[in-house]
Amino acid sequence: MKPTNTNDPEYFHKVVDCQYACPAHTPVPEYIRLIAAGKYDEAYLINWESNVFPGVLGRTCDRPCEPACRRGRVEEQPVAICRLKRVAADNKGDLSSRMPKAGKSNGKKIALIGGGPASLTVARDLAPLGYEIHLFDEWSKAGGMMRTQIPNFRLPESVLDEEVGFVTSLGIHTHFNHYVSSMKTVLDSGYDAVFVGTGAPKGRDLELPGRADAGKNIHIGVEFLANVAFGHINKIGEKVIILGGGNTAMDCCRTSRRLGGKDVKVIVRSPFSDMKASPWEIEDAQSEDIPIINNMPPKSFVVEGGKLKGMIFEKVKAVYDEKGKRSLVPTGEPDEFVEADDVIIAVGQDNAFPWIERDLGITLGKWELPAVNEVTFQSTLPKVFFGGDAALGPKNIITSVAHGHQAAISIDLFCNGKDLVKDRPAPTTNLFQQKMGIHEWSYDSQVVNDLRYKVPHQKKEITLKNLKTEVELGFDQQTAFKEAQRCLNCDVQTVFTADLCIECDACMDICPTSCITFTGNDEEDALRKKLIVPAENPTQDLYVSSELKTSRVMVKDEDVCLHCGLCAERCPTSAWDMQKFMYGVTKPAKIL
Amino acid sequence: MTFVKPTFRHPALTKNAVGFTKADYEGALSTLCAGCGHDSISASIVQACYELDIEPHRVAKFSGIGCSSKTPTYFLGNSHGFNTVHGRMPSVTTGANLANKDLIYLGVSGDGDSASIGLGQFCHVIRRNLNMTYIVMNNGCYGLTKGQDSATADRGSINKSGVENRFQSIDLAALALELGASFVARSFSGDKGQLIPLIKAALLHPGFAFIDVISPCVTFNNNDGSTKSYDFVRDHIDATSPLDFVPEEDEITLEYDPEKPAEVKLHDGSILNFYKLNPLWDPTDRNLSVERMNKARQEGHILTGLLYLEPSTSDLHKTLQTTAKPLNTLKEDDLCPGSQALDKINQGLR
After folding, report:
1. What's the rounded Cα separation, in Å, for the pair A405 and A363?
2. CATH says B22-320 is which class?
3. Residue B67: CA atoms inside 13 Å, Cβ hemisphere, count?
4. CB proximity list for B340: less than 8 A, separation 6 or greater
């Protein structure tokens, strides 16, 4: 193999698994260290710069970082990254003096359609540059799906209001209760660029026999949640069936429990293991006495005398072919009738742009997904940009934020007449030494053995009584410190300088997880096999040095490196050094 | 500074035939200088014991005083250990071995411990052919007292303060050979490929097995002009032949062929394979070994590898005709069988 090019910003970035997996590339280990140090303000601001909604995400994020966490490869559970983020938000002080201000007007005018996370991110990123930003939303407050789809018992309104407020207070012109019904009108209003962040607002329906007769006792999940959020619905029948196995279904069933539902069931058509909902949300639903019944596709609604009585379900089992493709095969058992006063259909969302005229040059493809460039988020009409669920279909908040950052860069480049691809700014990277003295590092290099701490929950008797009582209480400061110490500091990189190495093997001998091998060079596949412990995780890179004096090379398998710094401590010549790698997604303007 | 090694290990770490991973053979975190050759030797001992499927509790490790003699803390943390008096490791090991011949004895010493204060003990343990492995971690200086030249420092070697050594050095391997050791080897801490099989062979050798391991002192003797620095040793190393140790369980069939390894059968059926760089090299020929060592010394080369091996040797217990059972397991009844047994002996002498 060729020597690893550590100047490539992505090489070390990839080693920081959590940050790499995060769509917005939030510098996770950095803020976790700050939380451990009790510097909650700084931890919050690092988050805010990167993901705009730390308080919201610390409660509701889909956590792509956690399955990626290296800790999960050396023990059972990853670091509770998401809930640590909440600790920063819970304990921060007044940050108003450290927030950016709206810039001096630059004469450009931008329209943001939809007030969700993507649009708010664009607004936050562009406001310091002096853009005149107009934000349109059909509801009375900004927040989009964060407000309409996430129940208050998971996300208190005050948390959302504060973080939405940080953005709207940057001189944003908000137009609430304003449903944009024509893109043509927007385009004719003289905006220099238009950003569409309207989400995937259309909940799918199930056209089953009896659907039309059942009438008002059948609800579409996303609409139900929005109606609850704005107080239009405040009670539900005692027996409720929720159809669907995603996070919306989990929110619907838990909301139903708080609106008077006593016998609430989630019924999914496929096996339990194929449910799309996050494992922790399933767990929380189950702990509120909500059974999840699997392998039962719905067949029809049973309506008697104009009133919904229940639903009939078929019984199936999953059969997988050689390619692993699933098909649901009837088991032959008789169909089952399940009683219900109300049914909530939460089987997916679709994009919908009834307000975009089809002759404007904005191409909408399959399932109404707009044709957008996945790097620049520009549509086929150059001044129109899409982001969040509106751009690529339903994902999650953090993905919408990441889209917002990229769209903001594109809009800024576009408004300045620059090329959206060629002139795109590179990420910022920085490597700095952590040495404080002989064998002393400026980070806590000791690896603790603590297992993952559980976030305490409020008692069920209390939470089920009130829609607004938050279930999770969050970590207290002491537990947060202990959980933070579980972080392996993967951003503190092991940097190797071949010229300094005297090949004493000390690093290879000391490495607790046998990551380092000195051996003859070879092609990658062969080299992976001949390491002390073969490198069998192809998603993790090999760090290969240039040729050493004895014509061997140093090969480090990044897979289970603990970043404990022992290789550098045992290195007599500082050929190994621990250096903190900071990777930042460049924003149109400096935020902090 | 890290005082405790993290307990996480590579999840794919394999177990040997007796159910242990390599981690089970490790000891405490080393407190020697970063980059010390001794740590590589410790790691080689760990690897050798792991590969030989030795249960850690079957090993007894002994040492004297010095940097080298601290190392037993850093390997085989689950074995028996005795950190003895300066230069007196051989006599304490002799006592232990006589009491319980069932354990595997591993002595670790340094050039000061063996070539200066303990030279007498060194000679006598060889003379008695005690069944043990004796490893000298040889760095040519007294590292623990800030790097004065030791008795193994070569004449002409320059120490860290720029002073040339004017005295002859003691070549411990040559001395061992001269005194009749049945297994003599020399190696280099930076060459695990050679050192690990040598340690494995030595551990299973049924007599006194000596390995002189050149182990650079990174702090006091790794300077230009030193003959025991990493660079000097790498530039002047001259291996007898690459070798490979095959324990008796692994059946192999090999014929003599200059291109193929020559094998030397050990008493227990284990086999040492020699990949002959020099077809004339025969490690069982003592005269040839002496000649080769002298030649290398004259030429300023460091000859490493297995220098001499006596395949059928007679260790101290055999010579003394001790009982088959270890002495420490003999009960009073065994030792004083009573007047009947005495009568029987007396009858036999009439």
Report:
1. 23
2. alpha beta
3. 29
4. none
Extents of the domains making up chain B: 22-320
pLDDT over threshold 80, residue B116: yes
What residues are paired with A507 via a beta bridge? none
CA distance A580 to A555: 20
Helix spans in A104-193 (H): 117-126, 145-148, 157-168, 183-187
Q: Which residues contact A446 (CB under 8 A, 6 or more apart)?
A: A564, B2, B4, B6
8 A C-beta contact, residue A555 and residue A538: no
Distance from CA of A439 to the nearest CA of B (A): 5
Answer positive or negative: Cα dihedral of A72, A77, A82, A86. negative
| Banded model confidence at residue B253, pLDDT cuts 50, 70, 90 | very low
Check if A100-201+351-415 and A204-349 are the same fold: yes
pLDDT in tens, B267-321: 555 665 554 445 556 788 888 888 888 888 888 888 888 889 998 889 999 999 9
A551: nearest CA partner in chain B = B234
Residue of A nearest to B13 (CA): A533
In angstroms, the Cα distances linking A297 to A124, A313, A362 are 44, 6, 38
Residue B220, token pair as written in the block? 């006091």
Over range A259-283, report the average pLDDT: 95
Which residues of chain B have a CB within 8 Å of the CB of A567?
A: none
Query: What ranges in B100-168 are assigned the alpha helix state H?
Result: 111-115, 119-127
User: What is the H or E stretch that residue A438 is in?
Assistant: none
B259 contacts B273 by C-beta, under 8 angstroms:
no
Which residue of B5, B29, B40 is in closest CB contact with A505? Answer: B40
CATH superfamily of A100-201+351-415: FAD/NAD(P)-binding domain (3.50.50.60)
Contact residues, chain B, for A447 at CB < 8 Å: 6-8
For residue A384, is pLDDT > 60? Answer: yes
For residue A339, the cross-strand partners are: A310
How far is the C-alpha of A393 from the C-alpha of A396, rounded, in Å?
Answer: 10
Domain ranges of chain A: 100-201+351-415, 204-349
Q: What are the distances in angstroms from CA B178 to CA A140, A371, B174, B184?
A: 98, 86, 6, 10
**Complex prediction ipTM:** 0.86
Nearest CA-CA partner of A114 in A86, A89, A134: A134
Q: Which of B286, B292, B206, B177 is nearest to B241 (CA)?
A: B292
Chain A residue with minimal CA distance to B188? A504
Query: Both tokens of residue B183?
Result: 């297994």
Q: What SS3 state is found at A447?
A: coil
Closest CA to A553 of A508, A526, A517, A509: A517
The amino acid sitting at A560 is V
- The third-level CATH classification (topology) of the domain covering A204-349 is FAD/NAD(P)-binding domain (3.50.50)
Residue B166: both structure tokens together: 């004017």
pLDDT of B238 over the 80 cut: no
Q: What is the pTM of this model?
A: 0.90
Query: Pick from A526, A528, A554: which is nearest to A541 by CA?
Result: A528
Q: Determine the 3-state secondary structure of B16 from DSSP.
A: coil
Q: Note the pLDDT of residue B263.
A: 59
pLDDT for residue A231 is more than 60? yes
Q: CA of B61: how far to CAs of A143, A170, B199, B209, B249, in Å?
A: 69, 72, 14, 14, 25
Which of A74, A438, A565 shows the shortest C-beta gap to B8?
A74
Whether the pLDDT of residue B73 is over 70: the answer is: yes
From chain A, pick out residues whose CB is under 8 angstroms from the CB of B41. Answer: none
Looking at beta carbons, which residues of chain B come within 8 Å of A439? 1-2
Q: What's the token pair of residue B149?
A: 């030249």
